[in-house]
Each structure stands twice: as C-alpha cells, then as structure tokens.
Amino acid sequence: MMLIKMVLGIVSAVFGATIAAYFGLKKFAPWIFSDITYIRTVKGANDRFEAQCKNKKFIIDVFEETVKKYAKKTMLIYEDREYSFEYMDNMANQVAQTALNIGLRQGDIVAMFQFNEPSFIWTYLGFQKIGVQIAFINYNLRFKSLLHCIKVSEAKLILIGQGMELKKAILDIQDDLTSFDIYSQDPKPENLPVGFKSFGEAFTKAPSTQPDKSHRSGLRYSTPYVFIYTSGTTGLPKPAIITQLKASRAAYVMTIIGNGNDVLYETLPLYHSAGSMLGVGFCFATGATMVLRSKFSASQFWEDCRKHDVTIIHYVGELCRYLVARPENMQDKVHKVRVAFGNGLRKDVWKEFQSRFNVPQIAEFYAATEMPLGFINVSNKFGSVGRSSPLLRKVVPCEFVKYDYHTQGPIRNEKGRCIACRPGEAGLLIIPLTKIITFEGYKGRKEETNRKLLHNVFKEGDVYINSGDLMYVDDNYDVYFCDRVGDTFRWKGENVSTTEVANVISALDFIHDVTVYGVTVQGCEGRAGMASLCLKEPGCVTLTEEQLRLIWTHCKDLLPSYARPRFIRLQEEMDLTSTFKQRKVALLQEGFDIHKINSTVYMLNEKKSRYSPMDERTYNGILDGTIAL
C-alpha cells in the first residue's frame, strides 16, 4: 500500500510539473509551440538528408537507387509523352558514354545552353555520372551577357540544345569563342553551321550501359556540382558555386511537403536552382513524377494540372499573379493540387490565389542560390517564409540587423558593431560563417565573393554573409520577406542587374549617362525596371521617335525581356555624390508617377515594339491593373 502511495505521489508530482511547465511556456514563451510543430514537420526531410551524407552518397547515387526502385514508373511527362525512370537513366548513360568518347573526364566543365526539355535533365544526369561539372547558361541571354557567362565558366566545351534559335545566339558570338569546342544536340552534322560539332550523332551511337563509378571516384561533398548564374552589382551574371553537399540538401527540401506519390508541375526554367535543384532533385530523391513545360502558360496551367492529376505546383510570385489575373472559370477549383510551393508570393495575391483556386497549403520559402541557408513556411501562415526563433537559431544561425538605405549597408553603432533589429523591424539578413556553415561564393570572382562578407559584426573577428535581402520577424518569430537591396531587383521572377541594363543603354551615342532602378507597381510582384536618361544634347527633356525606336531595338537585341526597362524618363543632369556615385533616393520616391516628374515618362509596349509617352489614361490604367506590364 505504501508503494502504491509513493508511485501515485510521483505521478502526481510529474503531472503537476508538466502542467505547470506547459502553462509557464504558454505565458512566457508561447512561440515554442510553433517551434515544436516546425521541428516535427522538417525532421523527416533532415533525417533523410543526414542518412544520405552518412552513407557518403551523392545526388547521382540517390537517383540511380531510385531508378532501381521505380524503374517502370513515370518520372517525367513532357508534351503528353511519358518518360520512365529507367528510360531517363538509359539516356543519361548514353550521354555519359558519349562524353567519355569525346574526351570529357571528371572535373571538366561543360556549359549547357538548352531549353526546358527532357534532354536537359538526362544530359546533366549523364555528366554527373562521370563527375563532369555543368554551368547552366540562361537561354534568354544574348551577345555580351551570353559571351561573358560562357567565358567565366571556364568550360571545356559548349553544349547547345536543338533548334535554330540557340544556334543563332551562339553564331552571333562565335568569333569570340575560338577557344571553345561547340557541340549541338542535333543528330545531323549536315544541319550544323561551320565550326559546330554534333554531340547528338555520337549520342545516338553510344551504348546505354552504365559507366563504371570509378569515373566519379574523386567526388567529395565540397566538389562543385553545377554553376548557377546570378545577377549582381558588377552588372554581369556571376556563376555561383553549388557544391555536391548543397545540391544534396536542396533535393530533400520539398520532401518536407511531398513524397514519391506526388505529381509535381514544373514550369520554372531548369537553368535556375529552383527548377533544377529543388524540383528535379525532389524527383530524384523520392521517385515523384514531374510534369515539365517548356515555359509557363497561364491559359494552360490549370488544364495541365487537371489532365495529369498534379498535386504540387512550383511557383514564383509573378506566376501566381498571372493566374489570378485570368478571367474566373467554373473549373478554377477543379483539380487535385494540395500544395503550392515557391517563393515571392505577394500578400495581396496570396489570399486571392489560395481562396479562388482552393489550394489548401501555401509552402512559401526563402532561399538564394549562393546562400547556405533558407526558410520554409510549413504552417500555412499567411505571408510568412518560415521561422527564426531563439531556439531554431541554435540550429540555423542567422541575424537581422538594421540597414541604411542611403549607404546601402548595415548601420553600425559607435563601437563599429551592427545593431540587431527588434521584432517587426525590417533588417538585413546575415548568416555567420562557421566550421559547418561555409560560403563558396562565385567561380573566378574572389573580389565579389569577399564583397558578400561582413567583418567584425558583433565582435572582433567574426564574419557574416550578407544576404542582400531585407526581412523582419514578428513576435511569434515568423519571418517575412521585405525587399532586395543594392543594385539588383527582382522582376518576372528574375534578378535584374541595374548596372548591366545601364551599360547596355548607355552604349547609344545620344545618351550621356543613365541610372537604372526598380520601381514598385501596384499589383505587381517585384519591381519594374525604370531608366532615367541624361542626353548629350544640353537641356533636352524629350526623346524623338527615332531615339525611342533605337532604345527599343537596342534593349530588345541585347537584354532578356524581363530586364528591359518598363519605364523611361529624362533628367537634365545626374544627381551625384561627392564620390561621383549616382543618387537614386529621389528617383525611387518619384517612381513612374507622371504627377511628380517634370518631364515626359515613356512606357514600354512590347506588343507594339516601342516606347510611348504616358498620359493620364495610361498611368491610371497601370494603377488599376487594366494595362498590364
């Protein structure tokens, strides 16, 4: 009897302590319960990633194991044709054998210049089988930008996809590519321009037997996997180094919200990390099926989802805005999509998108190609990109510090240290460099890599990575994205370098100087490009029809569509600092508002292939959304 009383006393005491602890946390640290939910949700994905690392497996090993499990299962659907895991593997084997036959070896680099298509995936899989590294070249690039990206890749050869458009882009710069072998996926050599070789012909003759793993025996987690280009303050794309470890981690991100039974709809470009590392990587890791499109189509989006029983859609914010802008349809809610996974979804679009199309979960995330960490919203919290509490920062360390918009850098106190933000205060996201958290930076760009680092942030000798993004944390430690800083802004889901655009426009002989910046447009995700021009003719505050035509033609020929300025204005002279840096504060405040600007504002009309003066009707049409950008 005494023993029973003792046991009951202990149980009662433990129960009481538990209840007290629960209510204590509820009162003094209520956010801890959100943390518990978050940790429970992401634990499975983290465990799978760590198991892969423990077994010293790389992404290509994971893919080959998935092929053995799901050989006959459909891995890819493209233009209504189905490709099994086994078929994709066989094609990848042929690529690997072809690559070996033309002299490629582990550690060599290939610059891939291809559209979204099945061959993109099996080609880069084939290169991974023999340890060849790949530089993903944006197929929108032309002339100077394209030439730059190829040259800085230090590739042994260039491999382009089929089709005259890509051939012509390379032909335009061929005279400057004398040190590169140029191969095409076209299987018929007679169809190729002079100086081009046929990778496709050799491919059709190669065996589909798997190459021996000794061809990639030198792989390490620190070995580069691919190079993915980002826009930066130098004005030209920079190749971010994506290691085998980072690619492996990325492949498991979507396993937080999905599994092998899912069908993923992918319309994002595969040359970006989102499409190739997160989307394709998810299929490699789980055996999920991907429905791939060559490019996004708002009119076909939901029809594709219905046709293929899609369960996960992969978005950037602008994509969702296009879908919401479509006329309402009685079938808007008829689909099997359960999760929308992506980044950059504006709050004003978020609610309408989720309710109109009845998408149960929005898994908004934050990440940057070259950054060593990211966040993900697993709780369906409106507007949030994830969590960063005192507890979670023990595992994923980061800080948010006060930012000076004028100096475009963190604010420092009298001791030279950065100042942490309070809850609700927008600040610059920075990540500490540690033995575990590393920053590989950009290939061949040591100066630009170092420029991303902040020293002596909170104490002497510490080093942090500057994300270049402004964010804030609320009282519950949910994180919200605010904006990008510096000389890069985001438009149409792409990063636009202001310096690159300015360099292109300033090459016109009637322009003395140019300032490029991004302006906020009501209802649009990101910022629309705007260029303020200073003409060589003194006192001139209008542009002639011929000058407008030349600007349009120049931008069309030398810039991707998303980088072409949506608005143009004139200034008699540029506003400069004492060190001759352009001031953009006043320009940003005026935006494209014709009531604040004392000169004509011109708007890009791509359908009519011209820049036209804006009037009151046009300006109001942009504001109310009846005129699309």
What does this structure look like?
The protein is an alpha/beta fold and 629 residues long. It has three domains: 63-251, Rossmann fold (3-Layer(aba) Sandwich); 364-484, Roll (Luciferase, domain 3); 488-624, GMP Synthetase, Chain A, domain 3 (2-Layer Sandwich), CATH 3.30.300.30. It contains 18 helices and 30 strands. The strands form six sheets. The protein has an eight-stranded mixed beta sheet with strand order 2-1-11-10-12-13-14-15. It has a seven-stranded mixed beta sheet with strand order 7-6-5-3-4-8-9, sandwiched between helices. Residues 63-390 form the AMP-dependent synthetase/ligase domain.
Give the N-terminus to C-terminus distance in angstroms: 82 Å
* Number of self-contained structural domains: 3
Look at the structure and give the CATH class of the largest domain.
Alpha Beta
Largest sheet: 8 strands, mixed
CATH superfamily of the largest domain: ANL, N-terminal domain
Q: By helix and strand content, what is the structural category?
A: alpha/beta
Topology summary:
Blueprint (H helix, E strand, L loop, with lengths): L1 H27 L2 H24 L4 H11 L4 E5 L2 E4 H17 L7 E5 L4 H12 L3 E4 L6 H11 L3 E4 L3 H8 L9 E4 L11 E3 H7 L18 E7 L7 E6 H8 L11 E4 L6 H14 L2 E4 L8 H7 L4 E5 H9 L13 E5 L3 H10 L4 E6 L8 E2 L9 E2 L11 E3 L1 E2 L4 E2 L16 E6 L13 H6 L1 E3 L7 E11 L4 E7 L3 E4 L2 E4 H8 L5 E9 L8 E8 L9 H14 L8 E4 L14 H6 L11 E4 L4 E4 L2 H9 L5
Parallel strand pairs: 1-11, 3-4, 3-5, 4-8, 5-6, 6-7, 10-11, 10-12, 12-13, 13-14, 27-28
Antiparallel strand pairs: 1-2, 8-9, 14-15, 16-23, 17-20, 18-19, 20-22, 21-22, 22-23, 24-25, 26-27, 28-29, 29-30
Helix pairs in contact: 3-10, 4-5, 4-8, 9-10, 12-13
